[in-house]
UniProtKB/TrEMBL annotation:
Organism: Stenotrophomonas panacihumi
Entry's transmembrane regions: 12-43, 64-88, 308-329, 349-376, 401-422
GO MF annotations in UniProt: transmembrane transporter activity
Source organism superkingdom: Bacteria
Keywords in alphabetical order: Cell membrane, Membrane, Transmembrane, Transmembrane helix
Primary location: membrane
Protein name, UniProt field: ABC transporter permease
A GO cellular component entry from the record: plasma membrane
Domain ABC3 transporter permease C-terminal, first and last residues per copy: 308-428
Topological relation to the membrane, as annotated: Multi-pass membrane protein
Subcellular location as annotated: Cell membrane
Pfam families: FtsX, MacB_PCD
InterPro entries: ABC3_permease_C, MacB_PCD, Macrolide_Exporter_MacB
PANTHER family, alphabetized: ABC TRANSPORTER PERMEASE, MEMBRANE COMPONENT OF TRANSPORTER-RELATED
Length: 436
């Protein structure tokens, strides 16, 4: 009894290790495994017997559609939830990764991790603008944009609750520094006036951001005069003149400086000159690097959460598959015993039951992936970003995530079919033939 218990425990541990290895296998390794199995099935006598036995079981699936649908629907649910959760994290990170580029620098106070805890004094701006590597516009003015970030409350379109939104003050050169930002409706704000342009993503998530509407922010009336799109995190923001925003909220310093450099070499020159100037104890990074770091923790949390929830659901799907396949083996006991009596050995019977279960798992994985793609791919949502304001982003159901979901489905099928398959192979022929 003790030996049997230890053997079962060892089998479970080895199976768990095999599943982990299976999940992390790259696509070419999975393809290689599939090719080896296919060749074995087609070229060996045992493999051909396994295929013949599997055809018999698969042909009877329509007569057992109620039980087999438990496997398909259960696995589809696991894959759908897993892919949707991972698509949320990938979409959020992709939005931040696409924000900025490698030739635009963001300057923060030394040691600051984000704009919210950064302070840059006004007298430092001319020093920053005079450093080598800073690009100049057509008017020969340095492309430098002193910026402020203010969190304000807006009303969500989804449920009517108050949510945080980012109200950004930008300098006159912001439209050239942030060259992805394009006005698609209305016009740019005018410096010195309480006018706002809003991102397309913010307009889709918050009420009252249509062109011509008036907002009360900081006890002042602001007018929405335009809508812009950037295809990145700035789509979630509202923009205005930085000096107007500073006077409204009594801000005497800036939080960040965005600088357009003359390219990769220009950025290196700018960063080196910044470090060499003792008057400027500031940190410099590319805007791409900065925004990528801002999303790192949340993306990891969403990925871990998705896999954790998927694992819990996978346990349920495994038990459903085990129950269904054990029932299928029991109802087909005479059929399996007959095959054993006419010459089918244990291995073909095991492989036949496994192929049947893996086919159902494959159908469930494909169904779950298609449902996740149809419902969630491109679906826009917002979440709280590192600056305590909402970031609007889209779920991204990529082929990589669909492939991950499919591997999870096949892993569930492997566990759910293995033990019933072993039971079928060990079924005493004389006992099984007497069952009705």
């Amino acid at each position: 009894m003790k030996k049997q218990w230890m053997w079962n425990l060892l089998s479970i541990v080895l199976l768990a290790i095999a599943l982990v290895v299976w999940i992390v296998l790259p696509w070419f390794a999975v393809l290689g495994v599939a090719v080896v199995i296919a060749l074995w099935l087609l070229l060996t006598r045992t493999g051909r017997l396994s295929l013949a036995a599997a055809r018999i079981g698969i042909a009877s699936l329509p007569q057992r559609w109620g039980a087999t649908s438990v496997i398909v629907v259960g696995i589809a649910g696991v894959v759908g939830v897993l892919v949707a959760m991972l698509a949320m994290g990938r979409g959020f990170q992709a939005t931040l990764d696409s924000t900025g580029d490698d030739t635009t620098a963001i300057v923060l106070r030394g040691g600051s991790q984000a704009e919210t805890n950064s302070v840059i004094m006004r007298d430092q701006v001319p020093l920053i603008a005079s450093l080598p590597g800073v690009a100049r516009g057509a008017d020969n003015r340095p492309l430098v944009s002193p910026e402020l970030s203010q969190v304000v409350n807006l009303v969500s379109k989804a449920d009517g609750t108050d949510v945080n939104a980012q109200f950004r003050g930008v300098g006159e050169q912001a439209w050239t520094v942030h060259d992805k930002v394009k006005i698609i409706e209305g016009r740019q704000f005018k410096p010195g006036l309480r006018e706002i342009v809003v991102g397309k993503g913010a307009q889709s998530q918050f009420r009252g951001l249509e062109v011509g509407k008036s907002l009360n922010l900081g006890n002042q009336a602001w007018t929405v005069v335009g809508v812009f799109t950037s295809g990145d995190a700035h789509d979630s923001e509202m923009w205005t003149d930085t000096e107007t925003l500073a006077s409204t909220y009594n801000r005497r310093a800036y939080q960040s400086i965005s600088v357009r450099t003359t390219g990769a070499d220009g950025y290196s020159q700018f960063k080196t000159a910044m470090a060499a100037d003792p008057r400027l104890k500031l940190d410099v990074s590319t805007t791409r690097e900065y925004y990528r770091k801002q999303g790192g923790n949340l993306s990891k949390v969403l990925e871990v959460l998705g896999k954790f929830i998927g694992t819990i659901m996978a346990f349920g799907a495994v038990f459903g598959a085990l129950n269904t396949m054990y029932a299928a083996v029991a109802t087909r006991a005479r059929e399996i015993a007959t095959m054993r009596a006419i010459g089918f050995r244990g291995l073909p019977v095991v492989v036949a039951v496994m192929l049947e279960t893996m086919l159902l798992a494959l159908l469930g994985g494909v169904l779950g992936g298609l449902i996740a793609w149809a419902i969630f791919n491109g679906y826009s949502v917002s979440t709280l970003g590192s600056n305590f304001s909402q970031v609007v982003f889209q779920f991204r159901v990529s082929p990589e995530l669909l492939w991950t979901g499919l591997k999870w489905a096949l892993g569930i099928g492997l566990v759910g079919g293995l033990f019933p398959a072993l039971r079928a192979a060990r079924l005493p022929i004389t006992v099984a033939l007497r069952e009705v």
